[in-house]
Amino acid sequence: MSKQRNSLCVPVSFFHLAVIEKDIRTLQVFLTIKLESNIRLKLDLKQKQRIAKSAKVSISTLNRILKKLERKNWIQRDLAAPKYYFIRGFDRIRYMQQHSWSRAIKCYRSDITSSLNGFKAFSLTACYAIIILKKQSKIWERHYSSRQKKVGQTQEEPFPNFSKNDLWEISNTYIGKFVKRDVSFIKKYKKIGRKLGCLYSKSRLKRIYRDGSNQPVSSKELPNFIKFYEENENDRRLIGHKGLVYERMNSLVRVNLILTKRGSRFNGAN
What we know:
With 270 residues, the protein is of the alpha+beta class. Among the domains are: 7-107, Orthogonal Bundle (Arc Repressor Mutant, subunit A), CATH 1.10.10.10; 203-255, no CATH class. Helices cover 44% and strands 19% of the residues. Strand 8 and strand 9 (244-255) form a beta hairpin. Helix 1 crosses helix 7, helix 2 (24-36) packs across helix 3 and helix 3 (45-55) crosses helix 4. The radius of gyration is 23 Å and the shape is globular. It starts with 6 loop residues before the first strand and ends in a 9-residue tail after the last strand.
C-alpha cells in the first residue's frame, strides 16, 4: 500500500469532464481518496470519517459518491476483503474513457481539500489551462506550416517562445461554451479563482467615440448606442463608466498552476 501524499499530478481532462458533467464533488472525493492511497485502501468507518472530514462531506454523501465511483469503475471492491477497495490509476481511467490530453496539473492537498467552491474555481482554472494549451498548439502548427513553405531561405522565423506570465484573450462566453456552463457560473468561479490566486484576469475597456470624430460618447447617451452593438443577456458589451461609454473587451487571463507532462504508463493489457 502506498503512503499518503501531499500532491497529485492530475490529467487536465479530469477537470474538464467534471465541470461539463456538473460532478466536481465526485472528482474532489476521488482525489482525496488517492491522496490516502494510489493502489488499495481499507475503507472502514475510521478511514471514511477521515476522508469525509478532508473532503468536507457527510458520511452518507461519501457513501453515495463511493457507489458512483464503483459504477464509473474508478474504484473496485476487493471481493476477498470487502472493506478494501482497489483505486484505479489515472492512466487506466484515461484509457477507459479515451482521454486524449496527456498534460497534467500538480494539485496540492490544500487545493484538493479546499471548500467545494474553491475546488470548483480550481477546476475551472484547469479548463482555462486547456484552452491556453490549445492556443499554443495552434501557434506551433502555424509556425511549422510557415517554416515548411520557407524551406531554403537564409533566415527562418524564430520558434514561438511561451512564458508562464503570458496573458491570453479568453472571453467568458468562449470558455462557457467549452465547459457547457452559463456565463454566471464562469463569472462566479472566475472571481473565486482570482481570490485564491490560481487565476489572474485583467479586464479591458475600449472607449467609444462618435463616428468620424474624436469626441467620446457620454454615458447619458448609452441607451441610444446599445442597439448598434450585439448584446448578451448575461454579459453586455457596452457599459457606462466615469461618465463615458465603453465597450467591454475580452478579458486577458493567466493560470497560476503547475503544468506537467504525463505520458501514459498503461497499455490496456490489464
